[in-house]
Structure formats: structure tokens, C-alpha cells
Amino acid sequence: MLTLICRHFVRRASAYYALIAITLLVMVPTLSLVPPGEHLARISAKDFITVHTRNTPTTYYEGRHGPTGFEYELMHRFADYLGVSLNLDASHHPESVLPAVRENGDIGAAALPLLPGTPGIHYTRPIIQMQPLVVYRRGLNGIQAAGDLVGLELATLSEAGTGEALRDLQRQYPELSWKESHELEVAELLSRVEDGTLDAAVIFEHQFRLNRLFFPNVERGFTLGDPLSMAWALPSGRGLGLLEAANRFLRDLHESGTLDRLVSRYFGHDDYLEYVGTRTFLEHLDERLHRYTDLFKQSAKETGFDWQLLAAVGYQESHWDPEAVSPTGVRGLMMLTNPTASEMGISNRRDAAQSIDGGARYLRSIKDRLPDSITGDDRLYMAMASYNVGLGHLYDARKIAEMRGGDPDSWADVRVALPLLQQREWHSQTRHGYARGGEPVIYVRNIRRYYEMIQYVERSRQQFFQLEQTPVNEDPLLLFDLVPPLN
């Protein structure tokens, strides 16, 4: 309708009104000189939609149980909405996404900031807000305000949107300088802050929330400037059908509350790997573990694991809560996905007995699939790491360990290599790409701590039980070692 009105003005109005109409054509992105459904028709004809994205935790990556990521889920849902398959090109950095969209289509979905007026690009309606955030190396004092950034080794990603906030700040502080990288990703920036190569970096707040546990020496600083809007990018000049369909899809997600739930699932939980303190753990052990001890012992007999180790895995996964649901949708005491539950013959993931049985057998199957060259505790720790991150990423980490001159059969060397899967320099050389490689390292460390604590408590209980069984006529002082008096 708007297109027809503008054409009418061009034909019938004076030159002055024609100029106004042409201006409207430039300003309003819903106008086009090609058939409105051309782009959408091409996608329907080829039966798939190509999405240009990035291999990062906030966009797309191969997770513990297959492809995942906030924008991956959105794009997968959108492909289903259109009734076509999803074809991903995840080889991009922010700087390369828009050129690929202009040249090849169909959509760019890579934590892109909505920047009106970008040549050759139409943006969808906003998806979420992205707040630029300053992070800095722990130990640097006085990083409290924007002026404190002057003189620091500061960096951000090029074309990610965070540079705009720094350029705005530079008008107030002309001496401010920073570096922009078109090769690094967020995890690599944080790694450089962690190791002292950089003093500070500017990323988005939700990116820091997902990565903070892996970089304990990086502090959250302060927000910088106004939030930007994340949007999808589409090529202009190919009709407006796809843009209109995307906007309808995003509007429906928003109005139904689905978008808010997805944001909460991916960005609202950043404490999954936090180590629970001794007091909380002992409270849970006293209140919950006894309900499932027999189940852990039965599964231990069938799989050859120590029941206390299985209990430690269960605590890390769910805090022994059979109703638990993770941010990514896995559920139950041992946090099984639907595919894993199906593979293990589990019909009800919320049934504690089935969950423990399925989780124990799944861990056993992973351990059995590891190469025979991995032995002892190394084999156990790598099996637990694979339970968290997947066998494919573990094999990638073993490859990196070997490339670095380490032993791919040693957990000590693989443990160092796993976090490198977060860095483009390394994950680009692997089969399965990006992974939150710091996560399985923390995961295994936590389980080992819980395992030691369960063992300690169980030993203490057994000793106490033995004391209670001591005959009353036996001298209780004989139960203690005699300490001679000081001379």
C-alpha cells in the first residue's frame, strides 16, 4: 500500500512532492522496487534459508547435546516457521557478516547491532537490548568511571557495536585510545585481559555473564553508553517478503512471552558451574542424599563406578533434585536430554530411579568409547568432561594438546587445552569448532570436590556408628591415642 502511494506521488505531484516521496523511499525500509515476495519465493524454491552467524556462546555453537545458542534457536524456529531447512555459515567474525549478507543472503544473525542507514542492509525489529560493558583485570585499582580508561591498554571487537560507545566517549576524552580486532572473539579478549596483555576491554553485558566463570581474574566494571538493539540483517533490493515474515515471527515471539523465556534460558543463568560452599552442600547431603543412596548404589553395581562418584555427578548436575530443569532444557536428577534418555531407554527423565540409571549407563558408555591409551583417573576425568561437553569436543581438545606438545592421554594436558576451544585461533583448526571449553574443566573439578566431601562424610558416619556399637563396659578412653604429659 505504501509503495503504491509513493509511486502515485512520483507520477502525479510536482517536483517538490516527488522529492518528498523519493526521500520517503530512502527513509522507510519497507519500500522496494522489486516484487515484495521475491526473496522469500527464492527461499521457498530452494527449500532452505542460509544464515550467516558466528561460532560463539551467544550465537551458535555445538553444545553438550548438539547445536545450541540463543540466535541458533531463534533461527531454527524461524526456519520451521517458514517451512524450510536451516543452512548455517558460522565461519564469520562481526566484520564479515554484512558483506556476506549483501552478496549471498539470506540473513545475518550474529549479535548484530541495529545501525539504521547501513548501505545495502535492512534490519528487522529489535530482538534484545545489548549493553556495552567495561571489564578489566583484577588488581587494577580505580577503574570506576569512563575517564579512568584513558591511558589503559584497551580493546574491543571491530564492527560489533561496542566501538560506537567508545567513539562517543572519545568526544568527551579526545586522548582516549583503544584497539579494535577483526580476528578475535569475546573469549579471546577476556583471555588477554586475564593474562595481562590488555588492561581492559569493552564487550556486551550478556557476553560477560556467559563467560565470567572461565576468567576469574577479570572484573565487571561499569556500563558504557546506551544499550544497542540486536537485530537480524537482510539484503535490501530483493523484495520485502522475508523482512515482513521475520518481523511477524519476532513480534509473535515477543507477544507470546516465548522470547522472554528464551532470553532467561540463555542469559538468565550464569551460576550453573558455581561451586556450592561446604555449608550448603552438607545441608543438601543431610536432607536429600539419603533418598537416592540405594539408587546410586544399585547403578554403581551395574556400571562399575563408585556410588559416591555417581552421587557427586548427580549433585553437580541437579543438586539431587529430580525436578530440575537446566537453562538449555535438559532435566532430571542426572540432567538427561531427550535423545540421551531415548538412547538409554529412559521414558521419564523426572523419575529419579530412571534418571540415575540412565546417567550412570551413559557415563559408562562414554568411558568405554574412549581410546584404550587413556587409563586410570585420566580416563575417568575425560569421561566426566565428555558427559559435560561432548566426546567430539574432548577429541578436539586432545588434538590441541598434542599440537602444543602435550600428551593427549593425560587429563593434566587436556585440561589445559579445553579452554582453548573458546579461542578462534584454536577452534578453527578442529572438527567441532567453538566450545565453552572452560566449562568441563570446572565441571570435573567440582565433581572431584563433591566426591571427596561425600567420602569424608561417609567415613565419619561409619566411624561414629562404630563408636555407638562399643560395649558399655569397655573403657572409652582406650578408643583414643594416649598423649604423654609434657616434662
Automatic annotation (TrEMBL):
<keyword id="KW-0472">Membrane</keyword>
<keyword id="KW-0456">Lyase</keyword>
<dbReference type="InterPro" id="IPR008258">
    <property type="entry name" value="Transglycosylase_SLT_dom_1"/>
</dbReference>
<feature type="region of interest" description="LT domain">
    <location>
        <begin position="271"/>
        <end position="487"/>
    </location>
</feature>
<keyword id="KW-0998">Cell outer membrane</keyword>
<comment type="function">
    <text>Murein-degrading enzyme that degrades murein glycan strands and insoluble, high-molecular weight murein sacculi, with the concomitant formation of a 1,6-anhydromuramoyl product. Lytic transglycosylases (LTs) play an integral role in the metabolism of the peptidoglycan (PG) sacculus. Their lytic action creates space within the PG sacculus to allow for its expansion as well as for the insertion of various structures such as secretion systems and flagella.</text>
</comment>
<keyword id="KW-1133">Transmembrane helix</keyword>
<keyword id="KW-0732">Signal</keyword>
<dbReference type="InterPro" id="IPR000189">
    <property type="entry name" value="Transglyc_AS"/>
</dbReference>
<dbReference type="GO" id="GO:0009279">
    <property type="term" value="C:cell outer membrane"/>
</dbReference>
<protein>
    <recommendedName>
        <fullName>Membrane-bound lytic murein transglycosylase F</fullName>
        <ecNumber>4.2.2.n1</ecNumber>
    </recommendedName>
</protein>
<dbReference type="InterPro" id="IPR001638">
    <property type="entry name" value="Solute-binding_3/MltF_N"/>
</dbReference>
<dbReference type="GO" id="GO:0008933">
    <property type="term" value="F:peptidoglycan lytic transglycosylase activity"/>
</dbReference>
<keyword id="KW-0812">Transmembrane</keyword>
<dbReference type="InterPro" id="IPR023703">
    <property type="entry name" value="MltF"/>
</dbReference>
<dbReference type="GO" id="GO:0071555">
    <property type="term" value="P:cell wall organization"/>
</dbReference>
<keyword id="KW-0961">Cell wall biogenesis/degradation</keyword>
<dbReference type="Pfam" id="PF01464">
    <property type="entry name" value="SLT"/>
</dbReference>
<comment type="similarity">
    <text>Belongs to the transglycosylase Slt family.</text>
</comment>
<dbReference type="InterPro" id="IPR023346">
    <property type="entry name" value="Lysozyme-like_dom_sf"/>
</dbReference>
<feature type="transmembrane region" description="Helical">
    <location>
        <begin position="15"/>
        <end position="34"/>
    </location>
</feature>
<feature type="domain" description="Solute-binding protein family 3/N-terminal">
    <location>
        <begin position="48"/>
        <end position="270"/>
    </location>
</feature>
<dbReference type="GO" id="GO:0000270">
    <property type="term" value="P:peptidoglycan metabolic process"/>
</dbReference>
<comment type="similarity">
    <text>In the N-terminal section; belongs to the bacterial solute-binding protein 3 family.</text>
</comment>
<dbReference type="GO" id="GO:0016998">
    <property type="term" value="P:cell wall macromolecule catabolic process"/>
</dbReference>
<dbReference type="Pfam" id="PF00497">
    <property type="entry name" value="SBP_bac_3"/>
</dbReference>
<feature type="active site">
    <location>
        <position position="317"/>
    </location>
</feature>
